[in-house]
Every structure is written in C-alpha cells, then in structure tokens.
Amino acid sequence: MLQDGYLSVLEARDRDEFLGQVVRFAKRLGFDTVSATTIVDHFLGEPEFISVDNAPASYRDMFEDMGRGRQDPVMQHCKKQSVPIIWSQETYVGAGQADLWDGQARFGYRTGVAMALHLPQGRHFFLGVDRDQSLPKDRSELTRIVADLQLFAVHAQEAAMRIMMPATGDPDVPNLTPREVESLRWTMEGKTAWEVGNILGISERTAVLHVNNAMHKLGCINKHQAVLKALRLGLIR
What are the domain boundaries of the chain? Predict the structure, then answer.
C-alpha cells in the first residue's frame, strides 16, 4: 500500500535510505527517475541546494547545470508556485525551450510531475518524478497520482530536512498550550475541526484557531506538517 511509503520515508536514517524510499515510492506510481532537493535561502549569498536523485550518469552534467535550471519552465514554476505542475513536451515548447526538452528526452525525461513546498525561514523542498512514457489520459487517475505525490512530499520533506540539513537542527521545542496539543492530537486521528470542537467542548472556529496557532509555533504551512513535526518533537504520541 502507498501508505507504507509515507511512513517508511520518515524512518530513513541517511541519504541512501532516503533516496531508496523516494525511488521506491515513485516506481510504485510508474515513474523511473526522481529528484528531491532541499533549498535554503541565504540573506547574503546564493541559495544552498542539497539534492538526492537517481539521474543516469550520462545525464549528470546536464542535470546539474544551474544555468539550464534557470531556463527550465518546470523549475521556474516550482520556484514561484506551490501548485504541482504536470509537464510534457508541450510545457517546454510553450515556454520557448523546446531544445531543453529535446536534450533531456534522450535520457528518459519526457514527462513528469514536480512540486515544491515553500516553508518558513527561507526553506524549500522540491520533489520531481519523471518517466519516458506519456502520463495517463484518464483525468481521475492523473489526479490520484498527483494527490499521492503531494502527501508523500509532506512526509519526505520532514525526513529530508532532518537528514540533509542536520547542522540546522531544531529550535527549542515550542510551548504549545494544552488545547493546541489536544487539537493536533485529534487532527492526527483524522478528526475534522467540527469533530475536534465537539470532543473538546469548544466551537469549530476555536478548534481551527488552536490548530492554526500550533502550526505557526511549529513553523509549518499546513496541519499535516504540524502533526508530523509535533510527533517528531514528542509533543504528541
């Protein structure tokens, strides 16, 4: 089951294990190559990129060409947007970069899905999966693939930040209120804000406020990331 992949990537202990889990999940969705990158913006100086991938050795120089990345319409989309991009030859042709697609298509990069999570404190996480065959024409199947990748990306970025950026460490454990902790714990159980409110004897609006406050204190952009970080910090079990 795909759910196993969400949990397994969180248990990765080093870069090799992390890459193995990302590749395994991508292959279960029908993609051969992957790239996962953590990016840190620095106020002075260039951004820092730390990546793992399974790009073919013969494609390595082109793959790591930063100048090429600045022209790539997929990378430019992910730099500015949080919405996933489903790309193909038409994406590059439409951006006037048909030559870029021609160059990468020879190595199996003909179509794929890419997305970026833009996190607080100038941190970003990019996940891209690629393949040689066309993507499914069935819209519902394609939507499911993108949804699976989005959920996996939330889990993968937690592992990536821990493994690939160990020097940054975690700040002091945030001081969440008991209500914020309880709201996160019931959110982890799959409860809606309305259900959390009923359980805790508070309004739905107050339950949403508690979850949002917890997200802010934990430096997360959605409740799923907040739950994962709270678990990692031992705030909920």
Answer: 2-164, 178-232
Q: From first to last of its 237 residues, what are the pLDDT tens digits of the chain? A: 566 778 899 899 999 999 999 999 999 999 999 999 999 887 556 888 999 999 999 999 988 888 888 899 999 999 989 899 999 999 999 999 999 999 999 999 999 999 999 987 678 999 999 999 999 999 999 999 999 999 999 999 989 988 987 554 445 678 888 889 889 989 998 999 999 999 888 999 999 999 999 999 888 989 889 999 888 887 886
**Domain 2-164 grouped into CATH 3.40.50.300:** no
Q: Which fold has domain 178-232?
A: Arc Repressor Mutant, subunit A (1.10.10)
Residues 6+ apart with CB under 8 A from 40: 47, 48, 122, 123, 124, 165, 168
Query: Which residues, 6 or more positions from 91, have their beta carbon under 8 angstroms from its beta carbon?
Result: 73, 74, 85, 101
pTM for the whole structure: 0.73
136 vs 148: CA distance, rounded Å: 15
Report which secondary-structure segment, H or E, holds 160: helix 139-164
DSSP 59: G
